[in-house]
Design brief:
heterodimer, A: Alpha-Beta Plaits, 3 helices, 5 strands, 16% helix, elongated, B: Cytochrome-c3 Hydrogenase, chain B, three-stranded antiparallel beta sheet
Chain lengths: 116, 397
Amino acid sequence: MPRPGYMVSEIYKNLLKKRATILYPFKERELVHLPKGFRGRIIFNRDKCIGCQMCFRVCPAQAIKIIEDERGKRPIFFMYRCIYCGSCAEYCPVKAIELSDIFENIAFNKKDLLVK
Amino acid sequence: MSFYIPIGPQHHVHPEPLLMKFKVEGEQVIDVEINVSYTHRGIEKGFEYRDYMKGIFLAERICGICNAAHTLCYTQNIEQLLGKEIPPRAKYLRLIVEELSRIHSHLLWLGLAAHQIGFETLFMYVWRDREKVLDLLETITGNRVVTAYNTIGGVRRDITPEIEQKIRKSLDYLEERTKYFKKVVMEEPTVLVRTQNVGILKPREAIELFAVGPVLRASGIKHDIRADDPYIAHDEVPFNVVTYDTCDVYARILVRVDEILECINMVRYSLDHLPSGEYRIRMPVIVRPPPGESVSRVEAPRGELLHYVRSDGSDKPYRYKVRTPTLANIPSTARMLTSRGDYIVYIADIPIIFGSIDPCLCCTGRVMFIDIEKSKSWVWTYNELVRYSLKRFERHD
């Protein structure tokens, strides 16, 4: 027989529990759990890069530009265009590109979102 | 005396843009006209300008919640064109992610349905437990919602024993919670009063109006692409097609809740029987399938999803076509929202009836022609479309 207030017992049980919400941006930042292999901001290692331009060819969002510096061709990454698919890291033959667990990619200046 | 009530394109009943024009007499809805063409994004055209590998990430962005189903459908299509068979382990891994995202989608919908009938307590608890599935998806694929998991030739990551343990632990918790939610739905009068005998769609009407997915199964018709036309590992993993025959919103809730329980069993079974070996075959960056066409069907969380591709031998598709489940369910929604005989639709029931098809309009927009000078708008009929496409193909061939 249906009776109103079926969830009351559940609500009382949860009164004694800790809250499920994390007060993320200002407090409890350490409670934000990120698993291994999270796809976040790109980290680029210039010493390993051989300038093969593979990342530029596979990027679906055109977030990578190839420029020339004193050691030859190299990519730069525009994080404001990146869709965090991880294709560049996957196809890089020397593993010069890695995706870190930095997920706060917000800036007032576009230049702060440039990975060199 | 009858009035017209427009709901949308921007309205708090439904956050996505659509226009529903209701003809009402007092509290009763007697007619409805639905216009979904507010979100045309040009995705089908976008496919024609990307090579096949980059198309995966565009297919993923057709719909946020069904992204696993969309990439699965896309990659299956291209693999059929190329004539490649993926390794058995990849098939099982694809199934695991597909079913986990189905659990995620159904739990999200259950919360939204509770919200639409004004049962906020259930909404809060369901969404708290949905975080468990999102955490699992994040652990397996690297992102909470947009998974980027399927690729042409297999999947992009493997499951390690630690991840497997985590999945099993979370599934136990989810199973217990889902059984509790099912009890709440069946016992709590708040849900029963708002959903029983509301939004009736008789089995014959469901077939006539081409309803798909949980809407069709809630009308008592056993139809599921996973069972009728098995893809990936669905012919090896056993499951039941859930049907209910009360044909109302209540049946749609129960179908989805029972499907979550089925999905949990399917994921457990595939973890137990996970084959060893490779999880992907390496493909070149630029693939050039031979000229031809291919169709693939997938049971997305919302219903049958269909992708069509036509290749002309180059590195980009010549034509790509997507038919999403919500578009197929729109005609049956119009029928559910219309009073007929002794079945009466009240204005207060509009949100839950429309919500019961799990609408996702970002993937539903279609083109409409508007002549501003004559202030006239029209939609092409099937024959006009055929005539136009024949003419276009003549010019290109």
